[in-house]
Amino acid sequence: MHMKKLVAILIIMTFCATMTAQEFGIQLYSLRNQFKKDVAGSLKTISDWGLTNLEGGDTYGLTFEEFDSLLDQHNLDVVSIGANYDDLKNNPEKVLASAKQFSAKYVMCAWIPHKGNKFDIGTTKEAVAIFNTAGKLLKDAGITLAYHAHGYEFRPYKNGTLFDYMAENATNFAFEMDVYWVQHGGADPLTLLNKYPDKFVLFYLKDMEKGVVGNNTGHEDVETNVVLGTGQVDIEGIVKRGMELGVEYMFIEDECSRVVEQVPQSLEFLNGIK
């Protein structure tokens, strides 16, 4: 075979392998109200949607053994768990034990405590130090810590933002991009992904109703979560770029009251992305 043709085939094979390495999943918080009424039924719903990969960490009143049995029954796998900031700060060993119990590959923290609207460089530096310390403990066990920004991190700092400080000083932790909150906070998710292509290891896929004007508070009406591809976030462009970069898991998170109706529609949109 001609050498140039062989090289071209190998490039295509490598690209395809990267594309297929990515898997869609769901953040269990999406079904928080359903879990309050029926844990087994909620897990069955997820399985019926054809999803297998979960981000969670709660057992919804069941023992771990009971919950784990239901996961096995429905062929579901908790690949990422949430962690409380204070636990990462004061008891990272507790977080590590929980991650090991679920056999999770990732631990994510979704909120840095701050008073009211006062999120500043001092708070940011403290958080980075905590994440690097806890992240080292997790990394040594083969688990990746990822911080999940909520929008307030995109406030100006020097020639960039507080998020830039976090990304540039993250030695033992990575990031989970919630595309809704990145855009809501004033940043462009695709631009941010291209700026830090090696920093994002997980995604939250969540679309924002057209007409919503964001801010940097990290708060918004959950009913502004709409079917993926129907809002103002460039979900398709972000997913394609994430696939190219080999982002391993992209979790749907839909916090609105229409979640059970919307997730199948969102999956139809995602599965149509080429």
Helix vs. strand class: alpha/beta
Which CATH architecture is right? Alpha-Beta Barrel
Q: In total, how many domains does the architecture comprise?
A: 1
What is the N-to-C order of secondary-structure elements (H for helix, E for strand)? HEHHEHEHHEHEEEHEHHEEEHEH
**Roughly what percent helix?**
40-55%
The largest sheet, given as strand count, sense and whether it forms a barrel, is:
8 strands, parallel, barrel
The total of beta strands comes to: 12
Question: In CATH's first tier, which class applies?
Answer: Alpha Beta
Shape: globular
Stretches with pLDDT under 50, minimum 5 residues? 1-22
Evaluate the radius of gyration: 19 Å
Describe this structure as you would to a colleague:
With about 270 residues, this protein is α/β, with parallel strands linked by helices. The protein has helices spanning about 5-20, 30-35, 40-50, 65-75, 85-90, 90-100, 120-140, 160-170, 180-185, 190-195, 235-245, 260-270; strands at about 25, 55, 75-80, 105-110, 145-150, 155, 160, 175-180, 200-205, 205-210, 225, 250. α7 (about 120-140) runs parallel beside α8 (about 160-170) and α10 runs parallel beside α11. The model is unreliable at about 1-20 (pLDDT under 50). The chain is built from 12 helices and 12 strands. The two termini are about 30 Å apart. Strands 1-2-3-4-5-8-9-12 form an 8-stranded parallel beta barrel. The protein has a two-stranded antiparallel sheet with strand order 6-7. A two-stranded antiparallel sheet has the order 10-11. It has one domain (about 25-270): Divalent-metal-dependent TIM barrel enzymes (TIM Barrel, Alpha-Beta Barrel), CATH 3.20.20.150.
